[in-house]
C-alpha cells in the first residue's frame, strides 16, 4: 500500500517498482534473520529487553507520514525511495514482527 502511495511521486523513475520490491524482500530476509538470531541467542528476558528497545526506537517514527521525503528534485530517486520506506515501514514494524512469529509457534 505504501508503494502505491509513493510511486506517483517518482513518475519519471522507471525502476520505482523494482526498488520497492527489493526493499521489501531485503526487509523480510532481515526480519527472518533477526527473529532467528534473537530466539536462538538470547534468553527470554533479554528478548523482552531487545524488543522494548526496538519499540522505543520506533516511537519517534510513528508520526512520520512520508511527506517529509517527497521529492523536490528528481535526483537519486532509488535512494529516496529506500530512505522513505525505511523510515515509514521498517521502523514501525521491526519491533513487532519477530515477537509475533515467536508467539505464534515459530519454527522450533
Order of helices and strands: HHHHH
The largest sheet, given as strand count, sense and whether it forms a barrel, is: none
Tell me the count of domains: 1
* Number of helices, where a helix is a run of at least 4 consecutive DSSP H or I residues: 5
First and last CA, distance:
32 Å
What is the typical, i.e. mean, pLDDT? 76
* Low-confidence runs: none
Helix content: 55-70%
Radius of gyration: 16 Å
Question: What fraction of the residues are assigned to beta strands by DSSP?
Answer: under 5%
User: Assembly state here?
Assistant: single chain
Number of strands: 0
The dominant shape is elongated
Could you say which structural class the secondary elements and strand pairing correspond to? mainly alpha
Amino acid at each position: 500500500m505504501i508503494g502505491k502511495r509513493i510511486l506517483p511521486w517518482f513518475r519519471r523513475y522507471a525502476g520505482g517498482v523494482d526498488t520497492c520490491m527489493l526493499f521489501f524482500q531485503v526487509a523480510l530476509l532481515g526480519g527472518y534473520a533477526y527473529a532467528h538470531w534473537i530466539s536462538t541467542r538470547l534468553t527470554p528476558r533479554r528478548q523482552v529487553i531487545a524488543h522494548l528497545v526496538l519499540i522505543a526506537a520506533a516511537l519517534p517514527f510513528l508520526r512520520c507520514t512520508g511527506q517529509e521525503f517527497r521529492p523536490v528534485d528528481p535526483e537519486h530517486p532509488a535512494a529516496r525511495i529506500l530512505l522513505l520506506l525505511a523510515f515509514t515501514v521498517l521502523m514501525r514494524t521491526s519491533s513487532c514482527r519477530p515477537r509475533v512469529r515467536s508467539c505464534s509457534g515459530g519454527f522450533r
